Amino acid sequence: AQTVTQSQPEMSVQEAETVTLSCTYDTSESDYYLFWYKQPPSRQMILVIRQEAYKQQNATENRFSVNFQKAAKSFSLKISDSQLGDAAMYFCASTYNTNAGKSTFGDGTTLTVKP
Amino acid sequence: DGGITQSPKYLFRKEGQNVTLSCEQNLNHDAMYWYRQDPGQGLRLIYYSQIVNDFQKGDIAEGYSVSREKKESFPLTVTSAQKNPTAFYLCASSIWSLEANEKLFFGSGTQLSVL
Predict the structure, then answer these.
(1) Of A33, A43, A105, the CB nearest to B100
(2) What's the whole-number mean pLDDT along residues B44-69?
(3) Tens digit of pLDDT for each residue in A34-76?
(4) pLDDT of residue B99
(5) What span, in angstroms and rounded, lies between the C-alpha atoms of B49 and A100?
(6) Residues 16-75 of B with CB under 8 A from A
(7) Three-state DSSP string of chain B
(8) Taking CB atoms and an 8 Å cutoff, what residues of chain B touch A52?
(9) Does B102 touch chain A (CB under 8 A)?
(10) Nearest residue on chain A to B46, judged by CA atoms?
(11) How many CB atoms sit inside 10 A of residue A95's CB?
(12) Which candidate, B86, B109, B91, places its Cα nearest to that of A41?
């Protein structure tokens, strides 16, 4: 069974600063995909960024980027130039080709942005 | 606008009662999912469906039932057998892909509480 671990229940960052959220996963699969989802106070989850495990290049989406360390099974999310609207709960998730596309989620990290 | 609609936003269940949560999508997605979210925890998969008239149990299916009579609809029934139903329920959909790299689109959720 695959597991996803987020070791930081809560993080805070000053507006305009950079913060990194940690995620580790455990799998014996060779083909898998990693995601970061954001759940704002409205509670509707949206995708932040996606990484294919076979790609060595780290994914980036504007102010959001990942540090994907395949050997270490680590997938951290870096938020640059933090904004008040970034305050939310962030979930790391994984899917596997042999798992019918089902996603396994970590327990989440609550990010607070201080003005 | 395309998206996923969940209703109701809040639902209260009396002991011994079955309740049904609605989930409708107009994204033309083949795959639909139900997740349960408890405070401080990640999402856990209840049921999922890849095609009409077919669905599979997820990790915590006991006490729940689903149907998939139409591509657009995937209702979840919380039965009286579910002894701890208080939680936030999220419905999601995605394009069905053998590569499991498709992101999930989420509804806005239903908060179920026991009276």
Answers:
(1) A33
(2) 94
(3) 999 999 999 999 999 999 888 889 999 999 999 999 999 999 9
(4) 65
(5) 10
(6) 31, 33, 35, 40-45, 48, 50, 56, 58
(7) CCCEEEECCEEEECCCCCEEEEEEECCCCCEEEEEEECCCCCEEEEEEEEECCEEEECCCCCCEEECCCECCECCEEECCCCCCCCEEEEEEEECCCCCCCCCCEECCCEEEEEC
(8) 101
(9) yes
(10) A102
(11) 26
(12) B109
The amino acid sitting at B31 is A
**Which residue reads 């913060």 in tokens?**
A19
> Coil, strand, or helix at residue A103?
strand
Q: Give the chain A residue nearest B58 (alpha carbons).
A: A102
**What b/e sequence results for A69-93 when a residue is b if at least 16 CB atoms lie within 10 Å of its CB, and e otherwise?**
eeeebebbbbbeebeeebbbbbbbb
The pLDDT of residue A96? 79
Q: How far is CA A21 from the centre of its chain?
A: 7
Q: Does the pLDDT of residue B1 top 70, yes or no? A: no
Enumerate chain A positions whose Cβ falls within 8 A of a Cβ in B: 4, 6, 9, 31-33, 35, 37, 42-47, 50, 52, 91, 95-97, 99-103, 105-108
Residue B4, pLDDT above cutoff 90 = yes
